[in-house]
Amino acid sequence: MILKNEKLCFIDTPGHSTFSNVRSRGVQSTDMVVLVIASDNGIQEQTVECINLIKAAITPFVICITKIDKKGTDIERIYNDLCKMGIEPEAVGGNVPSFEISALTGQGMKEFIEFLPKFAKKIDLSYDVTAPATGTIIDLRISSSLGKIATCILRQGKLKRGDLVSCGSTFAKVKQIILEDGKYANEVFASQPFHLVGWNSTPIPGEIFHLIDKNIKLKELQKITRLPMFGHSLVSGRLNHVGDSEYLTYDENNPLRINLLIKCDNYGSAEAVYQGIKHCNDPRVVINIYCCGIDNLETYTLLSVPESHTLIYTLNTEINSEAREILLKQKFAINSFEIIYKLFDHIKHYIQLEIRKAKVLKQVGAAKVLATFQLSGKLKRYVIGMKVCDGAFYNEKDVIVHIYRNNELLHQDTISSIKKLKTTVSVVNFGDECGISLKSPYKVKPGDDVVCYRLFPDERSVNWHY
Q1: What is the pLDDT of residues 198-240, one digit of tens each?
Q2: Cα-atom radius of gyration of the chain, to the nearest Å?
Q3: Which UniProt keywords apply (predicted)?
Q4: How large is the angle between the packed helices 267-278 and 340-355, nearest 10 degrees?
Q5: Residue 141, SS3?
Q6: Strand intervals (E) in 344-432
Q7: DSSP three-state, residue 273
Q8: How far apart are CA 403 and CA 411, in angstroms?
Q9: Torsion-angle region of residue 162: left (phi > 0), alpha (psi -120 to 50) or beta?
């Protein structure tokens, strides 16, 4: 943005919680920060996070409260909350510049925009064009034609095509400088955003790059750009066999395991996807991230992925033809999205459908054992004489009974038959005395507790907020 011959470069960072690392890099890469607070939302968790980042970096900042045209907003409360955190806005007599604006009506916009270059001069934002070029990597993406492209901002000095820069364990001979409008340039100056082409290996966003002597010989170092992987396991859930019943359960010890391969268009998106997936706090689910990054999916990775519960995603990019051919041969679907939250929605929906295939036990009845009778014949079979003291007992396929003694589970089984006054019935209710036979012979004692459970689909929502 150019205001009265003054250039201002804005780094717009997302406000969602999954982009915390992007916000951290933004604060560390800027000369001043505009802390945007929506008047209808007030102070959010991300706002507190940004304030802490600003304090840690000792970065000058301006408070900008937006959407003041909305009815029912409480701006005074926002100021009070800021004061409690040690931030005193000018609007309430403090020393931190503050503005109230509405993009819809334009209220306060002119004053706010005109203030920014004045504030920059006040805090003496100047640079030395003769100093060696130094800058920050903001983001990273991979182009099929240009290779690794780093989005950068120069902090001081001047950078030209042909220069050599080092960044962490990698370096770049500047082959191309691409400006934000897509035009190619021969040089770039401090505070100017640009894309740098010519990296030897992958730089990491947030790292600082420096101009170095072109005659220095650098040892090539490889840096893996994929984000960390969770542990791998092929076992998913537990298949329970009780009497004639067989049912699947997912719990903390036997979770549903989902395997993900995700290719993103840039490092910031990959980082946000990874952080968002970590927010899944459901003990019934473990998400294995085989890879989440910007590099092409490697053949050995694709061939080692389990066939079950594996999802393949792309975010604003495509999978290279070799990887696509391997995936199609293995009959994997490739799910493509342009919005990160749509990708999360798809994963969550898949998990919810799989979870519903599992069963949960819900108690529907309880009884106290009165006596045990052994039936005549070669096979040891028993009839449990009992009185229903809660709910009901059913002779159905989806019913399981547990035998307890002193609150300790001794046996679980399915019901073979229920008799009431020598008549076979399918259900007995509260207060009824009856005799039940189990599928397998088990001798109980008077005073034991018999609890009747029914299997229901697991309809509980997946605990994942992103």
Answers
A1: 998 888 888 889 888 776 554 433 332 334 433 334 445 777 7
A2: 32
A3: GTP-binding, Initiation factor, Nucleotide-binding, Protein biosynthesis
A4: 30
A5: strand
A6: 359-374, 382-394, 399-405, 408-413, 415-420, 423-425, 427-429
A7: helix
A8: 5
A9: left
pLDDT tens digits along 153-175? 988 889 999 998 888 768 889 99
Distance CA 460, CA 360 (A): 10
User: Under DSSP, is residue 86 helix (H, G, I), strand (E, B) or coil?
Assistant: coil
User: Tokens 């992007």 — which residue?
Assistant: 22
Dig out the tokens for 4 from the structure.
């009265």
Superfamily of domain 134-224: Translation factors (2.40.30.10)
* CA–CA separation, 62 and 31 (whole Å): 12
For tokens 């009497």, name the residue. 243
DSSP string, 183-198: -EESEEETT-EEEEEE
**Which CATH number, 3.90.110.10, 3.40.50.300, 1.20.1560.10, 3.20.20.10, labels domain 2-123?**
3.40.50.300
CB atoms within 10 A of CB 369: 19
pTM, whole model, 2 decimals?
Answer: 0.59
